[in-house]
Prior knowledge:
5 helices; single chain; two-stranded antiparallel sheet
Amino acid sequence: MALGRKTGGRQAGTPNRLTIERRTRARSGLAAAEQTGLMPVDIMLAAMRGGPEAARIADRQLQAAIAVAPYLHAKLAAVAVRQEPPPDPEREARAAAIRAELHAMMQLFAVPEPLVIGGEREARKASSTSGRRTTARAICPPDPFDWPR
């Protein structure tokens, strides 16, 4: 690595020769099987249905069809089934009433209330001229230590 990184070789995502050959062989095998007209699933379904067609299928042919089927046919994926209960009009009406009540309550809290100035507290202010204390009444919020316990 002359520049501190990889500078040569195959590009990322490019398949190697063996992968390309396998894909080509698989495609040609699938095309050949489709041209003959009988796919493994057709043989298995004929054996399952019974009748004169099933009598012509040998046990060995059925086993071969079972063995080859995963290579020629896609497996069905399991899908989770979600069962939702049918809508109940009474329940929907109750839910709508509860939503309306909650909305009304939230509207009450959304309106800003005017600031209520709490109790009065005496503020002592020293007078520098007379040296005596005067009491001035100030309107301010109540002191947390003045709250009833």
